[in-house]
Amino acid sequence: GTTVRLNRPHDNRHLSVKPGDDGFMVQHFNPTSRERWEATPTTRNLHRTLVPIVGRNGGWSQALGPTQLAWMFQEERPADWPMPEPTHPDVWFVYRSNPAISFWDTRRLAESIARFPFMVAFAYTVDETNYMADLLLP
């Protein structure tokens, strides 16, 4: 899990919310035009390539990146991907997040999580994801 910050400063996400000239929050979108789109990823997350809203303002915004693709392709990957078939982790640690409810295809994600051999969750309350954990830690 993460604490997403879209704008500086990076140490306080509440201070990262700033009003823009139009009254909406300042957001530095990644360019999506054919001429300016970053087709070659600069990080392993591909956040600037696939998700315009993450902005170009710092690495902490990667939490809004396309990590959900890992869930979507657990069972089958696109045919033209050069990598081997995806595999489930042997152990999965969950911290400060609840992907079972925040992912848009919650049923599919929960089915995938249920097949993980062992799951550890740091939990301060029971939620949809840590309910499936083998071990809960405070």
Automatic annotation (TrEMBL):
It comes from Mesorhizobium waimense. It comes from the Bacteria. This is Molybdopterin oxidoreductase. SUPFAM superfamilies: Formate dehydrogenase/DMSO reductase, domains 1-3. Residues 1-21 are annotated as: Disordered.
